[in-house]
Amino acid sequence: MANALYDKGREGFLDGSIDWDTNDTRAILIDEADDTIDLAVDDNLDDRAVASRVATSSAMASKTATNGVADAADLTWTAVTGDQAESIDIYRHTGTESTSRLICNIDTATGLPVTPNGGDITAQWDNGANKIFKL
Amino acid sequence: MLTTRIRREGEHVLLQFQDGAKSFVVQLEGHVAVELAAQLRQQGLLADEWAQAERVAQDSAILLRAGSNFGLSNDPRILAEARKAAAWDSALRRYMPGGVQSEECFGTPTIQQTNPTRQ
Question: Chain B 86-115, CB below 8 Å of chain A: which residues?
Answer without folding.
Answer: 102, 104-115
